[in-house]
Amino acid sequence: MKKEFWLERWELEQTGFHQDEINPYLRQYWPHQDDGSLVFVPLCGKSLDMLWLRKQGLSVLGVELSPIAAQAFFEENGYTAHRVRSGKFECFEADDIRILCGDFFDLCVDDVARVSAVYDRASMVALPPELRERYVCHLVSILPPGTRILLITFDYPQAEMSGPPFAVSVDEVESLYREYAEVRLLKQVDALPDNPRFVERGLSSMQENVFLLTLNS
User: In sequence order, which ranges of the chain are alpha helices (DSSP H)?
Assistant: First the structure.
């Protein structure tokens, strides 16, 4: 999937993937972090979940391809963001929330050196199968050992709907991460009743899966 696809979605305001409420599984399953710990949110968009994380006393680092999304996050939540250039990224920052605008695959170890946890609700499911292995390999190669990842995915008959969001099975998550992390499946939920837009797109079933991953030390 090309970068232009996501940039165009934000330009045309075709952002049905954006949630207007805090994700309930984030509230329920977020692993405890000490005040001031840095949380990484890949492919963050303008997610309100970053506000919830900040209110827990955490610092937040997002990465997002679209500057429209980053600018909208700060403006819609009453912030005036400070903007600077940081290497390959344009950086937006206010109230200890920092969004790097650019390509996730350009991130390096130094960018996430202080990260102790990751919140992935939108990354894995946004990527087609051919990119997911590359995504996981890059993520685990730059994160500090022992980092915990709260991962939320959808699983459904992929032939019934073209992504995104793409179907990501429990088996695939375990296969991609087992070499690098302890994988715990925390919850499985029938998600179709709460997502009528996916019924309209032809889905017969949809399951939401919540994982807690702990990278090897």
Answer: 3-11, 24-29, 49-55, 67-76, 129-142, 170-177, 196-200
How far, in Å, CA of 39 to CA of 99, rounded? 12
Whether 33 and 56 have beta carbons less than 8 Å apart is answered as: yes
pLDDT in tens, 53-72: 999 999 999 999 999 999 99
Task: List for the chain the helix, strand, coil content (%; round to 5).
Answer: 35, 30, 40
SS3 37: coil
Q: How many CB atoms are closer than 10 A to CB 131? A: 14
Secondary structure string (H, E, C) spanning 128-145: CHHHHHHHHHHHHHHCCC
Enumerate domains of the chain plus CATH numbers. 3-12+23-215 (3.40.50.150)
Where would I find the H helices in 12-66?
Answer: 24-29, 49-55
Q: Is the pTM of this model over 0.85?
A: yes
